[in-house]
Known about the structure:
By secondary structure, the protein is mostly helical. It has helices at residues 2-34, 40-72, 76-100. The protein has 3 helices and no strands.
Amino acid sequence: MRTLMNNVIALSGLIGGLVIASLVFLINRKIGTKKRWFDERYKQVSTLARAASWNITFAVLLIAWAVVIIVDGISFSFFLMTALYIAHCIGFLATSIYFSRDH
């Protein structure tokens, strides 16, 4: 019962954090639109930052995958990391195909 309560508290914290982050994002977007913060330069910097972040996430996933194999072996964690890695690669493939089309 105690473990269930701890999980509920942890999940409520996660959900609360997502709600707060969403509200901050929406307020920031509204203020930024009025003050014209989101110009072409912002979009270019944001795009380059996301691309670099994607490459860093790829490397971190591979490192975490290796750590899971070393520490836990072939277990649930391994299959979870494999699913995340595959989702990451499929997401990259899908967005590459989408953005390579003429817009």
